[in-house]
């Protein structure tokens, strides 16, 4: 991960299983980025029905985009590839 073209060091990441709307999300694993902004996280969960729906949460506040006043500042995330080997679509969202 990068922040302002620099490695985002020690950024907290958390992996959960999305159980909405049945009950609360299941915690699977947590970790942090290394000195180069990389992380490796694995976890597991069991669901009573169907497979797990993993959610990756990234905890980072970009200081450059904390602003005072009422005019919002936009941030361009560039390209994020969402297609994975096991990606799927549903009609809920």
TrEMBL record:
InterPro entries, alphabetized: Transthyretin-like (IPR001534), Transthyretin-like_sf (IPR038479)
Coiled-coil portions: none
Keyword Nucleotidyltransferase listed: no
Domain of life (superkingdom): Eukaryota
Entries under Pfam families matching the protein: TTR-52
Keyword Nucleotide-binding (UniProt): no
GO cellular component: cell surface; extracellular region
Cellular compartment(s): Secreted
Swiss-Prot/TrEMBL keywords: Secreted, Signal
Family: Belongs to the nematode transthyretin-like family.
Protein name: Pyr_redox_2 domain-containing protein
Native organism: Meloidogyne hapla
């Amino acid at each position: 991960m990068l922040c302002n073209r620099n490695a985002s060091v020690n950024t907290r990441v958390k992996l959960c299983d999305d159980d909405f709307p049945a009950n609360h999300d299941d915690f699977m694993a947590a970790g942090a980025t290394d000195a180069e902004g990389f992380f490796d996280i694995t976890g597991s969960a069991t669901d009573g029905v169907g497979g797990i729906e993993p959610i990756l949460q990234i905890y980072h506040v970009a200081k450059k985009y904390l602003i005072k006043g009422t005019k919002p500042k936009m941030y361009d995330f560039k390209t994020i590839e969402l297609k994975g080997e096991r990606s799927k679509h549903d009609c809920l969202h």
